[in-house]
């Protein structure tokens, strides 16, 4: 993977965070979740990840120091519409997902509701790392909706 491909992946992860700045540590965890390995900053001659991210000023901005520094996307004309779609989807997605799956979210935990909606089928698959959750739901019209998210435990 060359530096330009790496920039695109990092920018996509940061954009997909929908309006919430993420820390460098969270970015590295999300990258590992998606790619299977940590961001390879040493391969590109950097001693620290935050130094590499600061060199990617055309893709991301960093504010602060160390692994707790915040990472924000650089919004270009090309990526602006993607960012808007992600933000819109994330705002509407939580409510719609709960409605389709018969689950409610309380304090970061998934708890089944007392009476799930009729004609709702769910298949939940949790990876061995217990970080990725995939939910497949079918609503009353039998339209299948796939949702996936990352869960981080402390």
TrEMBL record:
Residues 2-76 form the HTH OST-type domain. CDD domains: LOTUS_TDRD_OSKAR. Coiled coil: none annotated. This is HTH OST-type domain-containing protein. The lineage of its organism: Eukaryota, Metazoa, Ecdysozoa, Arthropoda, Hexapoda.
């Amino acid at each position: 993977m060359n530096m330009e491909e790496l920039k695109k992946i990092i920018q996509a992860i940061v954009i997909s965070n929908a309006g919430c700045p993420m820390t460098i540590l969270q970015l590295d965890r999300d990258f590992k979740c998606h790619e299977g390995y940590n961001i390879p900053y040493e391969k590109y001659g950097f001693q620290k990840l935050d130094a590499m991210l600061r060199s990617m000023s055309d893709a991301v901005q960093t504010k602060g120091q160390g692994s707790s520094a915040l990472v924000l996307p650089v919004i270009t004309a090309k990526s602006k519409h993607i960012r808007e779609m992600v933000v819109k989807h994330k705002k509407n997605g939580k409510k719609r997902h709960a409605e389709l799956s018969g689950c409610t979210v309380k304090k970061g935990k998934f708890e089944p509701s007392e009476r799930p909606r009729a004609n709702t089928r769910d298949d939940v698959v949790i990876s061995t790392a217990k970080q990725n959750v995939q939910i497949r739901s079918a609503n009353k019209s039998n339209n299948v909706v796939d949702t996936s998210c990352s869960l981080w435990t402390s």
